[in-house]
Each structure stands twice: as C-alpha cells, then as structure tokens.
Design brief:
single chain, Alpha-Beta Plaits, globular
Amino acid sequence: MITLDQLLAARDRRRDLQIRLLEAHPELALIVLTVNIPGNIKQTPESRDIGHEGVRVLRERFGQKLQELTVNDLPTGFEAFLLVDSDEEEAKSLSVEIEDTHPLGRLMDIDVIGRDGVPLSRLTRGHGNRRCLLCGDDARVCMRSGRHTISELTDEILRLHDGYFKRI
C-alpha cells in the first residue's frame, strides 16, 4: 500500500523527468503513459500488463518515429515516457484515439506534454472528457463524488483485463 506522500512525490519526480526530457529534446513530442488504478495499491500484475500493452500500441502506432522510451513499474504505478518525432497535435489525436478505442484504453492515461510542460487538453481539442468506466458519465465527476467504490472499479478493471488478455 502506498501513501498520499508517496503518490505526491512520484508525481513531482515524474514532472521533473518530463521537464528534463523536454529540455533535452525540444524537437520531439513527449508522451507519458500511466495506468488508471484506483485505491492505494498501484503496482499489480494487471497494471503492469495494461501498461505494457499501452506501450506496445504506442510503439506500433508511432513506429520509426519513436526515438526514446523509458518504462518504470513502481509501487506508485506504471509509467512510460516516449519521445516521438511527431507534431504534438498529431500525437495527442493518436493518444486520444487509443484511449477511446482500445479495449483497455479507458485504463490508460496517455498525456502529451506540451513544450511548456503542460499536458495538452482533450477538451480544448474537441475530444470531450473521459468517460467513467462503470456508468459512462464524466469520469472526473464520478471520481470526485465517490460515486463508485474501489471494489466496483477494481472488479471492472479485472474483468476488462482478463477479457482482453484471454483473447490474445
């Protein structure tokens, strides 16, 4: 189990790495993949599988444009950093497409970090908010209101994971 302090420290470390990568490679787009896992246990076999599937799909979609890849499977969660020779807008469109169409896409958080260090927004690019895994409403509203229990969400994540990996 991880603490809030550990989560906050991981977020700060991730941001510091993002800034270093952007400074070192200003000509490339930076994509950051994390796995959406509720609760205080973030490192599981399922989160690892989902993260690696996200990396596989991103590698497949970007092909030779992928210039650098860093993967961390930490107690605070799976994370991958991809530097691609692509326009930020193209990278964001492709990332949203994966999130919205891949069978595990709703469990992946794929951000494109702008040159200013701020993630490009889905909403301002006409893609709409992410939908809740369980009810289809705005995911942020459900999360903030605590509409669904961690157990309900975890059960759905396991169902999606098992259904996907048993098919392939």
